[in-house]
Amino acid sequence: MILSDDEKMMLDGVAGPAVAAAMDLLVRYGEALDCAHLCDVRNVAGTMTQPSPIKAKLVAQGGWDKAYAVINLDCDDDIEIPDMRVPTCQLQQGFGPDAEGVVPYPRGRIELQNDAEAFYGRRGVSILATCTPYQVGNIPVRGEHCAWMESSAVVYANSVLGARTNCEGTASTGAASLTGKIPCWGNHLTENRYGTHLVDVRVGVDDFLDWGMLGYFIGEIVQEQRPVVVGGIGQPEPIDLKHFGAAAASSGGVELYHIPGITPEAPTVAAAFGGVEPPDAIHYGPRERRATYEDLNSQGSTSDVDFVLLGCPHASIDQIWRAARALDGRRLSSGTQLWIMAPRALKTIADRSGYTEIIERAGGRILADSCPAMSQVVPVGTRVFATDSAKQAHYLPAFLGIEAWFGSLEDCVDAAVTGSWTGGLR
Amino acid sequence: MTAVGATTVLRGRKIVPGVTEGEALVSHETISGWGGIDPARGVIIERRHELCGVSFAGRILVFPGAKGSSGWSGFFQSTRLNGTAPLAMVFTSLTTKVALGAVVTRVPSVLLPAEPSEVDPLVVIRTGDRVLVDADNGVVTVTHAAH
Hints:
Chain A is of the alpha/beta class. Helix content of chain A is 41%, strand content 14%. Chain A has 16 helices and 14 strands. In chain A, the strands form 4 sheets. Chain A has a 5-stranded parallel beta sheet, sandwiched between helices. Chain A starts with a helix and ends in an 8-residue tail after the last helix. Chain B has 147 residues and is of the alpha/beta class. Chain B has a single domain, classed as Glucose Oxidase, domain 1, CATH 3.50.30. Chains A and B meet through helix 2, helix 3, helix 6 and helix 15 of A and strand 2, helix 1 and helix 2 of B.
């Protein structure tokens, strides 16, 4: 790798041992990628506070300095962790104290995380505690180099915002926070941002459910490549693209897509492909839509629903309001729980706006910071769950061995109220 | 079919330095970290995966690459901390997930060409083969076992 003077100084320890360890990790990682340079970043989204058995052990050995050194810098030395060099936020994590009594989650983990928040907050890590930092004020500008992890946030930053980030990991974001550097590879380079596949949509895609299914279909086909989506799509809302990207990053590994006329780097189809002739189109019509719906519902066979999960990726304030309206004046079935996952900042707004009260009066809960997949926890005794999220329908059955139903917000709320799944494709 | 005891030499690029020798575990499908492996046991747990229930601990993991969540590297780092890591990694598709994952697992790792002129590593190397991974020189030497 070719390092600049300031990077060499950091590697040589001029800024202290933790920064030197961070630069050492970035050099090892950059060389693994066969990458020539690092680029400057001033926006890092990573994870430090999420509790785990390994972290508990490391903290017992040497405090959070030790945990950060080993897990976030891949360094075995006893070093002190200084303030973050560039703006850094904590993504989704474990559940907090307010989830106690609702979520069957160990108190020890809540306490460990509280301790972590105090340590990292003191060093300049903003505890956004959400998989959607872009919903609570972290909105990089177009062309800005970032170091983000969380696949659904990475695809949103690249595609909807036109920022540039690879799908980073715990150690690379930990090193980026202390140096303001990340390998200039992959999505950071213009030539790697053009479309590779053309998807022609031949069925109306104009609501949250359909955007999720379209994303799930596309991810399965293009895997890590870059789809360009044209055809029968309506004007998406931010939540539609949030769902679309998360689904495409779950069934495949999509980190960047273009929708000509809508996403910023694709004013036209030609621009999306960088002037190269587009490939033959992949078609998404009524048959593919039906097959995708059936695929997402292939993990459900029992119609009794114990648990309804909304808010993956974390709900917008508008999604919380829509759920509140659907629940207003109704009451959950006695055997069914309904959780809505949201960023804590938006839960505060929901509390203030009275949405939380409507949802709680019906028997539902808004929960912040985490989600069932992240914390691997659902209500005790859950055998069958329903969700409006293609990503959760994809992951939760594998994690927790439960059945899944996928459908619209309205179908999910009906299931929570009646205790049984009657959803379908309309 | 390659004769028992015959060797095949594959050349690629160093991802993480080091030299080691062991028994190959070959996955033809990409591997998930988060939701795909149990780092406490070093076992693949993805239900629909061809190696579901199989342990990679102490074996040379030969696979196409990483898929899924950005937690990939963190999960493989945990296998190192738990003593359940593979002995080495040999893969054919380079992404940030697998590159960082190999680095923090700290095992000799080699990237082999996915579409070489003559041989596909995922066909040539078979589970149970003896494999010498010389990551420093980007060379993987396979001694074929009886299958």
